Structures are given as structure tokens and as C-alpha cells.
TrEMBL record:
Domain Histidine kinase per the UniProt entry, residue ranges: 318-539
Signal peptide positions (record): none
InterPro entries listed in its UniProt record: CheY-like_superfamily (IPR011006), HATPase_C_sf (IPR036890), HATPase_dom (IPR003594), His_kinase_dom (IPR005467), HisK_dim/P_dom (IPR003661), HisK_dim/P_sf (IPR036097), PAC (IPR001610), PAS (IPR000014)
GO molecular function: phosphorelay sensor kinase activity
This enzyme's EC code(s): 2.7.13.3
PANTHER family: SENSOR HISTIDINE KINASE (PTHR43065), TWO-COMPONENT SENSOR PPRA (PTHR43065:SF42)
Source organism (scientific name): Pseudothauera rhizosphaerae
Lineage: Bacteria, Pseudomonadati, Pseudomonadota, Betaproteobacteria, Rhodocyclales
EC class: transferase
Coiled coil feature spans: 136-184
Gene3D superfamilies named among the record's database cross-references: 1.10.287.130, 3.40.50.2300, Histidine kinase-like ATPase, C-terminal domain, PAS domain
Protein name: histidine kinase
Length: 683
């Protein structure tokens, strides 16, 4: 291959002002790059370079000058050990032979300081070649990504090289060299995963890379000459205008802003604006570097919401425990008073109070469900059949002016869920939809199969996989977008005062999250609301095998009941109920005292204990000690708040648990079915 020749470069001062301006701008842009770039003519001698060449290769600035022979650079590197051991003249000669071949080349070289550089050379036909050095030390840790990017980069280099070959036939050598550098810079800017633009002092675009233009729904050519105000729109432009004013004063600024894209979705970006100030002084425009942070914002919002809901859930669970104790006292005393009064004078006051207390107990149950501390009983449920069966109840519960539509799958879809809680959730959503359509409308319940991939799973906070998706959609008036983020908060309601407790959607949220799914609400004022939630799928349960009826439960042996409860008033109510059922009672106010009674009173026939008590010995631990002392002793635990941690606590996990509040009838039913533990048979 013949060695390329080149005419001596024309002095830069001989260039027209516009070309000189473009050349200065190009060099300024090259100096912003992290890559080292150097252009050599056909001799080969150094024509131009950027500041990264000095930084990455640690060349003394005094070494570099226009016209520096390439051989001098090679010898400098060889003498400082860049090419390893060996004869310096031979090392230089080998590399000069490769350079004079004027072939594209790429290799990686580890410098003595441990940094790894990727070296790429691209020939400029009949002119010389361009060399680029890239620090890929960190990139080597992601080899697969780098290899893919290199393949794309090489393909684009070949494409741009072909374009330059056609252009070189129409322009002179110096203009061709400048065009090569300009196109190369544009290629690099289009390849990097960031949005880059240059804007003049009149706030009109002079350049934008592909990512920047596409983010605004523009093309690279279409965005040029447009003003910032036209591209951003009035609302977004108002957000960034103060920052641009600051940049006009010569300050580098960084800020975030939001805008609505063509699909109506709000997107977010973080931008850094660097003033373009000429060497002679004076503001010429802006260099802009932006990054799309929409996904980051979504993740931050989801984290904040999850933390807030978790905090509210913990608070709600603690309050529910205390209220259950209070309701146990109220219901127990009201039930006893009702029994004493019978139907006589005063009973008309007791009955409403007792019913109100029971409604309060149901409210507390909803609170526990919201806080994800209510024990669920999940099982495989055919969701389509459950929704179809519920439609009759919904039709009767809703106004005659509301039409109910079902969209059910052709094949059965099973979800691992508590069926009663799912029915309650659907009923709550249907009643909310009814209230949103006072003049009538349409309620649609759709059930479908949904596969959630890893990308979506990170946003909705569920594991990837198959789910059953349920959509409840109404044609009502919709909800103010400002209120949507608060809809799952307990006691928050959009209904008029006195029309709702504000716990319906909170209960649904708690149930769905506790069941391993997630839920979201989309609402457009004037067009209705859609509530969509997903639940994990499950295999259908097998046909149960008929079993023989269990033998009648034996009656408890005679003897006193040991009642352990740290709340005196609650203990008093339960003692009264046990006494009314014919059981003598021994009381203890904590687990430590109860353990001593178990050790010293041999004729105790039954242990009834609260689960959480002060003193270091809770109900579970007390049950374990009782089993160790008396394996055949029947045990009943009572609790006002069964959290997941409490259920999984160590100890006798087969002990039945009675939830507070309860009345005498519920206590009697549990005691009737309370069997002594069976001794293990021979194995």
C-alpha cells in the first residue's frame, strides 16, 4: 500500500472567520471530552490534540506541539517503560512500521500506573489518521457491556467513514479534515447515554444530540434554530428561566425540572448548564448536559409512600391492640348487664351500646387489616367464579341506576388469597364507585392474567412472575389528581363529613399488600376512576379427601382455670365470663407469677393467658413452660393484636388463639372445642 501524502497545512490565521470560529468551537468541545484525541498527518506528525491527551497519557505539555513527529511520542513512551522491557529502538521501529501501514487499529494497553487504555486509530484517506485513547479501567468490570458498545461504535465508525470518503471528493483537504473531526464529535455525542445541546446567546438551539432531541419529541435537525421557550413550553420554561439567567452571568448551574411529554406523562430531568464564554470575553451561549431521572423520581416517590404507609401501619396496629382491650371490657360488661336485665327496664339502652361496640370491633379489624397485622387465611381461589358469585350481591347493594358489567377470563385463574378479605375488598371498591356515581353510571369489574417482568416489578414492589389482575372501573366524576396520593391513608376520605370512615381503601391496600400484591389508582376528573390490583397466582387446590368425623371433644377436667392478663379490667371481665360458665378462677397479672402458680398448684385444669405481657414472660413462652410441666394441660391464648412476628414466635405454635374483643358465647365455644394435647404415639 502506497504511503499517503498530504499538502502542508494552511496556517489557521488564513482560515475564514466562520471556519476559524468552528475550529475553535470544535477544539473547545474536544477539550470537554474524557477521551484523548490526536490527529496526525500523513508524514506522520501531530496536527491537533485535546487536553485529555496530556491527562491520560501523562505527557508533559512542553512535549506536545504542532508538527511533532509521531516517532518522538513513541520513543518517549518506550523510554519510560510504557511498552515493557526490550530494546527501545526495536520497540519504536515495530510501532512505526504499524503506523506507516495506515490501517485502522484497536488495542488495549495497561500503563505502568495500572490504568488500562483503549487505543483506536482511524485513517483519514490521503490525509493521515486520528488516534483516540479511552480510559477503560472501570469499564473492564462490565466486559459484556463494553464489548457491545465497541461493536456498535465500530459499526458507526465504518458508516461515518464511508460518508467521509464521498465528502472528501467534493471538498478540499483542510475542510475534509475539519468535517471528519466534527462528524466524529457528533458520533461520540450521539453514542453516549446523556442529552447534550449547545444553545446560543439568543436562546436558540445550535446543536442537540439524538438523545436530547428525542426526549423533546424532536429530530436532531428539527430542533436547530428553535427557541428554548418553544421546545420546553411555557410551564417548563418558567421553571428553568431563573437558572439560565444565572448562567448568563457566567455561573455554572445544576437544576431539576419536570415537563409533560407528548403522551401526557410527566417526565423529569437533571441539567447542568455551562456558560459558553469566548476567549475574548463575552457570553456566547450555553453548553447543556441533561440526564433523564424519571425512573429515579418514581423510585423515590414509591419509597417515600412505602415508608409513610409502613409508619402509619405500625401506629395503627398499636392503637388497634389498645382498643381491642377497651372493647373487651365494654362488650364483656354490656353483655353481663344485658343478661341481668333480660328484657326489663333499661335494656333498650344496653342493646344499642352493645351493637355499637361490636361495630367498633369490626372497625378495629379493618384497622388491623390495613396495618397488615390481621391474620389472613390464604388459599387458592378461582377469582372469576368469586367475582361472578359476588355480582348478585353487588347488584342488590348498588343503585338501580348503576349497571354492573363483568369481564371474566375464559379459563379459570386462581390467586393465593383470603377469599373473605377479597370479597370485602371488592365490596368496598364497589360501594366507593356507587358513591362516585350518584346519578347512575357503569361499574366494570375485569379479571385477567398479568405477567410482571423485572423492570416493572421494581417499580410496583412485587417479585416478577404471573399475577391475577383485577380492575374495578367506574364512570363517575373522578378524583382531583392532588388527592390521589392520599387515598390509601387511613381516615382520609373524599366523601362529605359523616358519610364514611376513611378506612375502606386503607383496608383494601393493607389486604392487597399483605397478600403479596400491589394496588394503584388512576382517576381523571369527569371521566371516572380505575382501581387496579394484582395478586399472586396459585395452583388450584386438589379435591379434599373425605375424612371420618372427629370424636366428640372431651369435657375439661374439673379444677380451677389459671387466668393470666396484665390489664386488671380485662382480667375482671374474662374472670366474670369464666365464672358464669362454671369455672373457678385463679388470677395472675403476668407470666412470671403464672409460672410459679403452675409449679405449685397441681389441680389447675386450664390455662388462659394473654399473649403479650410485661415481665419478660409472654403467653407463648408461658405455654411452652406449661407444656414442659404438664403435657396434657389444655391451653388457650387470647390477644388483641396478632402480628406476623407474634405468630412466628417460638413456643407452642399449636395453641389456639382467641381474638379480642370476644363475648361469653365466643369464649364458651372455644372452651367446648378445646382438647388436651395428644401424646405422640410410637413411631
Amino acid at each position: 500500500m502506497a504511503k499517503p501524502t498530504a499538502a502542508p497545512p494552511e496556517p489557521l490565521t488564513a482560515l475564514p472567520p466562520e471556519q476559524r470560529r468552528r475550529y475553535d468551537l470544535l477544539l473547545a468541545g474536544l477539550d470537554l471530552l474524557d477521551q484523548a484525541v490526536a490527529v496526525f498527518d500523513a508524514t506522520p506528525k501531530l496536527v491537533t490534540w485535546n487536553k485529555a491527551l496530556v491527562r491520560l497519557l501523562e505527557f508533559p505539555e512542553s512535549l506536545l506541539y504542532h508538527g511533532l513527529p509521531f516517532e518522538v511520542l513513541l520513543r518517549f513512551n518506550a523510554e519510560r517503560g510504557e511498552y515493557g522491557d526490550g530494546d527501545i529502538d526495536m520497540l519504536v521501529a515495530e510501532r512505526m512500521a504499524a503506523v506507516r501501514a495506515f490501517q485502522p487499529h484497536y488495542f488495549e494497553r495497561a500503563r505502568p500506573n495500572g490504568r488500562v487504555l483503549a487505543v483506536r486509530g482511524v485513517p483519514i484517506p490521503n490525509l493521515g489518521f486520528v488516534s483516540l485513547w479511552t480510559d477503560i479501567t472501570e469499564q473492564r468490570r462490565a466486559e459484556a457491556v463494553i464489548q457491545e458498545q465497541n461493536a456498535q461504535l465500530e459499526a458507526r465508525v465504518r458508516e461515518r467513514t464511508a460518508e467521509l470518503e464521498r465528502a472528501n471528493r467534493e471538498i478540499d483537504q483542510i475542510a475534509g479534515a475539519l468535517r471528519l473531526n466534527e462528524e466524529r464529535l457528533r458520533l461520540i455525542l450521539d453514542a453516549i447515554p446523556a442529552m447534550i445541546a449547545h444553545i446560543d446567546a439568543g436562546q436558540r438551539y445550535r446543536f442537540a444530540n439524538r438523545a436530547y432531541a428525542e426526549w423533546f419529541g424532536e429530530t436532531k435537525g428539527g430542533i436547530v434554530d428553535k427557541s428554548i421557550a418553544d421546545v420546553f413550553g411555557p410551564e417548563a420554561y418558567g421553571q428553568i428561566r431563573p437558572h439560565l439567567t444565572e448562567a448568563e452571568q457566567g455561573e455554572r448551574v445544576t437544576y431539576e425540572y419536570a415537563r409533560r411529554n407528548a403522551e401526557g406523562r410527566t417526565v423529569y430531568a437533571r441539567s447542568t448548564v455551562v456558560p459558553d464564554v469566548s476567549l475574548e470575553g463575552g457570553f456566547k451561549g450555553y453548553f447543556v448536559l441533561s440526564i433523564d431521572i424519571t425512573e429515579q423520581k418514581a423510585s423515590q416517590a414509591a419509597l417515600v409512600q412505602a415508608q409513610k404507609m409502613e409508619a402509619v401501619g405500625q401506629l395503627t396496629g398499636g392503637l388497634a391492640h389498645d382498643f381491642n382491650n377497651l372493647l373487651t371490657i365494654i362488650i364483656g360488661n354490656l353483655s353481663a348487664l344485658q343478661t341481668q336485665l333480660g328484657g326489663g327496664p333499661g335494656s333498650e339502652y344496653v342493646n344499642p351500646a352493645l351493637q355499637a361496640s361490636k361495630r367498633g370491633a369490626e372497625l378495629i379489624k379493618r384497622l388491623l387489616t390495613f396495618s397488615r397485622r390481621q391474620t389472613l387465611e390464604p388459599c387458592p381461589v378461582e377469582v372469576g367464579a368469586l367475582v361472578h358469585n359476588m355480582s348478585h350481591l353487588l347488584v342488590r347493594s348498588l343503585s338501580e341506576t348503576i349497571k354492573v358489567r363483568l369481564r371474566l377470563p375464559g379459563e379459570p385463574l386462581h390467586a393465593l388469597v383470603d377469599p373473605h378479605q377479597l370479597e370485602n375488598a371488592l365490596l368496598n371498591l364497589a360501594l366507593n364507585a356507587r358513591d362516585a356515581m350518584p346519578d347512575g353510571g357503569e361499574l366494570t369489574i375485569a379479571v385477567s392474567d398479568r405477567e410482571i417482568d423485572a423492570n416493572i416489578a421494581r417499580l410496583v414492589e412485587v417479585p416478577p412472575g404471573h399475577y391475577v389482575q383485577i380492575d374495578v372501573t367506574d364512570s363517575g366524576g373522578g378524583i382531583d389528581p392532588a388527592l390521589v396520593p392520599r387515598l390509601f391513608e387511613p381516615f382520609f376520605t373524599t366523601k362529605p363529613f359523616g358519610s364514611g370512615s376513611g378506612l375502606g381503601l386503607s383496608m383494601v391496600y393493607g389486604f392487597v399488600r399483605q397478600s403479596g400484591g400491589n394496588i394503584r389508582i388512576l382517576s381523571t376528573p369527569g371521566k371516572g376512576t380505575n382501581v387496579r390490583f394484582v395478586l399472586p397466582t396459585a395452583q388450584p387446590a386438589g379435591t379434599p379427601v373425605a375424612e371420618s368425623a372427629p370424636p366428640p371433644a372431651p369435657r375439661l377436667r374439673s379444677g380451677p382455670v389459671l387466668l393470666v392478663e396484665d390489664e386488671p379490667e380485662v382480667r375482671k371481665v374474662i374472670r366474670m365470663q369464666l365464672t358464669a360458665l362454671g369455672h373457678p378462677v385463679i388470677e395472675a397479672e403476668n407470666g412470671v407469677e403464672a409460672a410459679r402458680l403452675l409449679e405449685n398448684v397441681e389441680d389447675i385444669a386450664l390455662l388462659v393467658s394473654d399473649t403479650v405481657m410485661p415481665g419478660g414472660v409472654g403467653g407463648r413462652e408461658l405455654a411452652t413452660r406449661a407444656r414442659a410441666l404438664r403435657p396434657d394441660l389444655p391451653i388457650l391464648l387470647i390477644t388483641g393484636y396478632a402480628s406476623a412476628g407474634d405468630e412466628a414466635a417460638s413456643g407452642a405454635t399449636d395453641v389456639p388463639v382467641l381474638r379480642k374483643p370476644f363475648d361469653q358465647a365466643a369464649l364458651a365455644a372455644v372452651l367446648q372445642n378445646l382438647n388436651p394435647p395428644q401424646e405422640p404415639g410410637p413411631t
